[in-house]
Design a protein that fits this description.
By secondary structure, the protein is mainly β. The protein has no helices and ten strands.
Amino acid sequence: MDLDILAKYSIGNTEVAVLSIGTGANGTCPVAYYFLTMKGGESALSSSISCHHEAELKTSLVGQKIRASISATEGNGEDNYEFDYQTNVLQLNGEVQK
């Protein structure tokens, strides 16, 4: 299993790291992405963004949320995620991910 920190954000007294974790799966879901939020000695891990093959996750801070985009798992285009670091909620195209 491989772990990489793709990006880090410092927002006030909150730190958010974007993690890439190699799952070791051959072909099915080789990489999962997570948001790790750290604030006041507490940490929380988001739901995963998974099953993307050799796609680059792009992130940016917009207001109170981190936006992430990656090549879509089905068809053309991109999947667009939004992570609210204050509530630790990850959404894909407006739907909460569990």
